[in-house]
Specification:
The protein is 28% helix and 31% strand. By secondary structure, the protein is α/β, with parallel strands linked by helices. It has a seven-stranded mixed β-sheet with strand order 1-7-6-2-5-4-3. A hairpin with a 2-residue loop joins strand 3 and strand 4 (74-80). Bound molecules: adenosine-5'-triphosphate (ATP) and magnesium ion.
């Protein structure tokens, strides 16, 4: 059974903070993100990397498609599938670790490669709003993980 958690962030730092929380909950999972250009997918990736303790600056892998970052035994796989417009293109890339990460994977424009993605993906959809810096996140995963995440978000906002 899955559940969708909906929350808003009011600026890029809040999106990074959401990524830090998600890194605690979704260890060893693939996070599949879709949403408009400039909606905040890469900022969510920056937060996930921070949450894994990766110090290297995360930048958009638009041109190289897949970036891998390492912190001790944890890896962060960051793919941008924006340019994968032809199914064949994905088969030129070794996606074995990306799809079974020892750490976390985040795939931007995941809808472009949905035919290789596991059913167990955490799905994230980011929506822009008419407020310049406000974004709505729709995060879908198994009920226990979503409730754990909601608990951490709630505790953080109380502080
Ligand atoms: N709440 C917010 N969360 C994330 N980014 C925000 C937010 N409000 C404003 N921004 C701005 O929106 C932009 C988001 O850029 P980002 O590269 O993360 O988007 P993206 O979805 O990865 O884009 P692309 O589709 O080009 O890969 C940045 O300029 C950031 O400063
Ligand atoms: Mg991006």
């Amino acid at each position: 059974m899955t559940k969708t958690y909906i929350l808003a962030t009011e600026n890029e730092q809040e999106t990074i903070n959401l990524g830090i929380v998600m890194a605690k909950v979704f260890l060893d999972q693939v996070i599949c993100v879709s949403g408009d250009l400039g909606s905040g997918k890469t900022h969510l990736a920056k937060g996930l990397a921070q949450g894994l303790g990766i110090e290297k600056h995360v930048t958009s892998p638009t041109f190289n498609i897949l970036n891998v970052y390492q912190n001790k035994n944890k890896s962060f796989y960051h793919m941008d599938a924006y340019r994968i417009t032809d199914e064949e293109m994905i088969y030129d890339i070794d996606t074995s670790e990306l799809l079974e990460p020892k750490g976390i994977s985040l795939i931007e424009w995941a809808e472009n490669i949905d035919f290789i993605l596991p059913d167990t993906c955490v799905n994230v959809y980011i929506e822009k709003t008419d407020k310049e810096e406000k974004r709505i996140f729709y995060i879908t995963s198994d009920i226990e993980s979503i409730e754990r995440m909601a608990g951490i978000v709630y505790e953080n906002t109380l502080r």
